[in-house]
Amino acid sequence: MYFSFETITAFVGVFIVTYIIYWVKKPRISKNEPPMVPYKIPIIGHTLNYLFNAEKFLAECRQQHGDPFNIYVFGQVNTIVGNEIAQEVYRTDTFSKSSAMRDGDSFPLNRVLKILEYPETLEQVAKTIREVISAAKLPLYTERMQKQLMISINKEIGDCSNPKLIITANSNFSSMIARPVADILVGQEISKNEDVVKAFADFTKDFASILVIPPILSFIHPKVHSQVITLPLRFGWNPIRKHMITLKEHLRPVLEKRLKDKEILGDKYEPPLDIIEYLLNDPEYGTKVITDDYLNKICEFLFFIVVVSIHTTSRHITFALYDFAGRPELWDDIYEEQVRIDKECIGELSPQHINKMVKLDSFVRESLRTFDSALIPLPHKCLESYTFKNGMSIPKGRIVQTYLMDIHYNTTAYGPEPRSFLPYHGLENNFSASKIDKNYLIFGSGKHACPGRFLAVNEIKIGMHKLILNYHIKTPSGKIEEKIHFGPFVSPPVSGLIFENRKK
């Protein structure tokens, strides 16, 4: 076989470039770090197992190397923490989800939402949620939530005299959750506008469309990937701009009217109960004039809450409905509880009636526990070098991911078969769906636990209560449907759910 000089030169060039990348990208691990899981393919490291065999791969790593351990994916070392170490990460200020989100190389979110460039934004969001929709204030929203959810149920599912297949991948449940969230965020007057509800429902889907590209170029350097993937934004393409325009169009006259009413009525002004009213009175976000810059700031703030509320809540109510629909042995028991409560409240739920949904609450908790994501989607970033209590250290800047299955499927907390669906485990052990626990990390832990978890669980319970009362719900196969796995993460099944009117 004949090779030309040019061919040989090209081979040599490729070899040299590959060697340089390998040498530059070879992970350097210090003596006291968690063990690096061995890998066979230079540069690629564990990426293929991470993408295509995550559950088995991480289980083997945990068994062989303990907790924590290091893996090498997409050109950088990640530390994986499990059941023994995770609490340290969640209860120590050295580890930051906001920094990982803001500075992430796979896609810097501040390129889309400029407000995330300011470190205090996430703290302000958490403070706003705690003060406006805390557990103590949730009763103020109960009537509004169930009213908005019923509007959504009638619109998205409607009459099912004949069995109707609802394809859940079409964001039906995003629309269902968007309506009560819009009511709480921007008030009852704006939430009646279908364009605003649609903007809230579609925002996360369009937002996610620019995050799905795997960070292949990170094998060269993470910054290369972030620079390339954000090129379209620099040239003006932005899939969420239309949603911002819609919200600003409808929000401006409402904010202007509220400011005018305050000025005219003074102490007689009755403030509406919603987040935009809270922001108007907040020292950081308050204003006396509604300018374009102010509208941009407020809308970005609101849309960030949309990302962390509508997206997660709609996903988990979808998971819960599939869990219910695929387990006919639970139907009668949970349905009977909803019928009894409905008779007590005559169709108008109060907070006390929601608290009586103990079987449904326990079922929801178990659905949240077993939703089957191997890792928690939001990583933490180590802000300065840190030594764990077991003596292992990690450097500043290290990305730390939480091995959720190691926590949610541990035998100490959940018995010899922790992967089994235990619908009444929460009820039997007095654990509500919103109660954080070292063995239940879906809402985080410590002072950084999700402040919106009480609202999310209430929305899921009210939504499921109304759906179970009104419809027989089953899967097309009559069995538990397979979830969709994307690397170590998971999405609800796409087979759809069959709804049929219950006979009254």
TrEMBL record:
What are the entry keywords? Heme, Iron, Membrane, Metal-binding, Monooxygenase, Oxidoreductase, Transmembrane, Transmembrane helix
Heme as a keyword of this entry, yes or no, is yes
Keyword Iron belongs to the record = yes
Q: Where in the cell is it found?
A: Membrane
Q: Which cofactor does it need?
A: heme
Q: Which InterPro entries match?
A: Cyt_P450, Cyt_P450_CS, Cyt_P450_E_grp-IV, Cyt_P450_sf
Tell me a GO cellular component: membrane
Q: Name one GO molecular function term.
A: monooxygenase activity
TM ranges: 6-24
* Residues given in the record as heme binding sites: C450
Alphabetical list of Gene3D superfamilies matching this protein: Cytochrome P450
Q: What is its main location?
A: membrane
Q: Which residues form a coiled coil?
A: none
- Homology family: Belongs to the cytochrome P450 family.
List, alphabetically, the PANTHER family matched.
CYTOCHROME P450 (PTHR46206), P450, PUTATIVE (EUROFUNG)-RELATED (PTHR46206:SF5)
User: What protein name is recorded for this chain?
Assistant: Cytochrome P450
